[in-house]
Amino acid sequence: MAAIMLLSVFFVSGALASCPEHAQPLVTTPQEMEALSGSCLQIPCNFSINAEETFDRTGPTSGLWIKSNYYYYFGSKVVFNGNMMENIYPMSLTGDLSQKDCSTLFSSVITSYTGSYLFRIDNRPLRRTETCDPLQIKVKDSPRSPTIEIPGDLKEAESVTVTCSAPAPCPHSPPKLTWTLQQDPPNTMEENPDRTFTTKIQKTLTLTDQHDGFNITCSASYPVNEGKDVKTAEETKTLHVSYAPKDVTVVVSPADPVSVGSLVNLTCSCRGIRAADGFAWLMMMSDGRLHTMEDNTQLYVFEVTNSDRGRSYFCGCSNVLGLQLSKGRALIFE
Fold first, then answer.
1. How does strand 278-284 pair with strand 290-295?
2. Same domain, 123 and 44
């Protein structure tokens, strides 16, 4: 531990220089990473050297991680040294330094590990510390809510794929995703372009009007504390499906029975949000002939006559997805 403290003093006392203008970053990692307390964090990491520098792949090489809560200069300390048996933080190099792979596993993280981290490569005479592009790590007590992806402009009879995904900062103990679309969905883990990981579930739906207003709830359960506990987050989204008009009916008011000379209101009723863009009224005469009465009005008002006996009234609702006609509605006379 004393050696670690000496290294800390060494870095603070001048090895952490400011970033020169147009300098080439030493390390390639995600700019920011978020971890869950009680779990681990897999840090993808590669390093490169300048053309004028020499890297001996066969020589002794060590990697170090330096934490600075105040950017580069103040409060910096070596929290991991690959040559040490004991380190301040529970980190281990999983990459092959001879291949310039400095990937690191950060185990059993806690919130106090939040901060800026700099990587140092020691391959004497080459000794370089990343000062231009520190890795920002945030450790939180609660997981981030999963993300539900629903394609836009959902329409009846279309097939769409709904996806729920959640980050897997600890791919050794990824989150388990479940949702209201199906029981025990198969979870898959995908590697992202930045070499982090994401867990996903997917379901393909053939949409009907019954899906309109349906709530999809997805839960992500993260094992923590070596699997002894679980932390869960969830997200809910609602499907909004456009569909042709359904359940078209003619509503009579005042209610039957009617009398000759009275005014009657016929309303064309359609089920569903955004169900109808247009309306049409038809009348079937007592001899079976069909007569168009009115277009583009949901309410049809008329005075009852004896001629209305035996007639049936129909209405139609239409939108860009289709047209539906009601059943005939005959008036009941006193």
1. antiparallel
2. yes
pTM, two decimals, is 0.81
Cβ atoms of 169 and 39 within 8 Å: the answer is: yes
**214 and 304: one domain?**
no
- Angstrom distance (rounded) from CA 178 to CA 163: 11
Give the C-alpha separation, 160 to 208, whole Å. Answer: 11
Query: Does residue 300 share a domain with residue 272?
Result: yes
| Helix (H) or strand (E) segment spanning residue 165 | strand 159-167
The letter for the amino acid at 221 is: S
110 pLDDT more than 80: yes
Lowest mean pLDDT among 154-158, 237-241, 319-323: 319-323
What is the Cα gyration radius of the chain? 34
| SS3 at position 203 | strand
CB 118 within 8 A of CB 8: no
Shared-domain flag, residues 80 and 43: yes
Contact between 160 and 176 under an 8 Å Cβ cutoff? The reply is no
227 with 300, same domain?
Answer: no
Task: Report pLDDT for 11.
Answer: 41
User: What are the beta bridge partners of residue 290?
Assistant: 284
3-state secondary structure of 217: strand
Query: Is 27 in contact with 47 (CB distance < 8 Å)?
Result: yes
Structure tokens at 86: 């004991």
Sorting pLDDT into bands at 50, 70 and 90, what band is 271? confident
150 to each of 125, 173, 241, 242, how far by Cα in Å?
54, 27, 11, 14
Domain membership of residue 211 as a residue range: 147-242
Same-domain status, 42 and 135 = yes
Q: Residue 214 corresponds to which tokens in the numbers above? A: 């349906």
Average pLDDT, rounded, for the chain: 88
